[in-house]
Amino acid sequence: MAEIATENKAPSSGKKLKVWLIVLAAVLIVGGVVLFLKIKSDRDEALRQSIIGSGTFHPGITVAGVDVSGMTPDEAAEALKEAEQSLVQDVSFRITDGEHTYTFDQPHFDIAFDTEAILAEAMALGREGDLDSLQAELADIAENGRSFDLSYTAVPRDAGSFVAEMAAELDMPATDATFSVKQLELNEDTEALDVVNIGFTEEELAAGADLRDKRFDFTEGTEGRSLDQGALVAVIRERAEAREYGEITFELQPLYPSVTVATLKQSLVLRSSAWTSYAKGNYGRATRVHNMTKACGLIYGTVLQPGDVLSCNDLLGPRYEKYGWQMAPAVIEGGAATEDQPGGGVCQVSTTMYNAVLMGDYQIVYRQAHSSRLSYVKGGLDATINTGTIDFKWSNNTEAPIYVFTWIDKNEKKIWCEIYGLPFSGDFDEIELYSDEQEPIQPTADEFIPNASLTYPYWMVKNAAKKGYVYDTYKIYKMAGAEVRREKITTTTYKMHPNRYFVWPGYVPGTPLLPGYKLTPVVE
Fold it and tell me: Which of 120, 251, 273, 278 has the most CB atoms lying inside 10 A of its own CB?
């Protein structure tokens, strides 16, 4: 029975071994499959990762027409530099008015490209999904390609300063009309301006000439030009934003003078003029005419600013022979007599000016009448001057400069004074002078003055009797020829003189002066 048991055990062990071998084989097979699958999976993942993280662009990708396949972003960026410049080659303005041309090109723009963003977008292609989808996408890219376009922004950086520099070169201010006192030649005889016969000729009067053109040199203003900077800057920015590069045209705006010769003349009128005649008697003596001509030449063209005072003595200077003044009659002894003095006759110039000043409604600062009434002007309307003592002064009481012209008409034997300035503004357009004579002052009793050079019964006339006179003078303000008011100027009194005689010492008043013993002074 024991042998039977032994025989049954051996087959059982072999069967087990076989089973284990089968199991082992199965395990090995399964393990191999698993290992294979694991190895494949790892290989696929590694390949996927290599695709995702390659750091270069996949084949088939172009940017702005440039094939960037296999390039890194930095390499692609460098390769696209030329494409970038080609993209902005037209970013420029030719700014012109047809005569002047300026170029506003790339250095004046802030230019930015979207290259970095586009490259990032291109790099992102084929970077997501499993290996199969990636490979399919790469295959499609390689076969069909992927293209990207570049874009840019160009913002004018310094349009304002650029246009300002243009304006600095192009702008030209308008110039206003100007005028100046007409310059005259020097009269060698009087050593003053040559103011002889400078009135209108008959032909000029007939043609309606403007007397101001004889006294002043007028220069018409010139037009200017200006660049409208704001408008041009706006056009540059608008065109840049719309990428409409090329030519921009502009026009310079004309600038016109604010003051023309016509407007100048509106505020520069002949406000007043006066004349006196030297045709009578001794007034026309050659030396006296010389002195008046010299005085007129020294005064001619005097300009008084608002508030300025004109002094005749300051303008004429001391009247002595060494200064070119000649001997001519002058009133002395309170009007009782005359004698030749250097500068005799200049009082007719100051008198003529006094009348023009009154008719111009200017301010009299100081005026003194002659001691004796004159025949070349109405009573009360004269103004005497004397070196170092008596002056005639008046001031510009207007708000603009005034211009004084004195001249002599040797053909008509007249002294003229013209004053130019603002026109009258108010209720009058002219002033007329009126002289009202009062009752004369009769000479008093004869006077007898002892003179040691005389012996009985000789005598001489010192001066003949002269009445005294009193005048009230007025300014009559008129509008269109009608009187609107009158104002008193002053009261002027001219001295009375009795007969005065030089007699011998010891003369007894009442003793008759015998005509046969009258002596006549010797005039040298």
Answer: 278
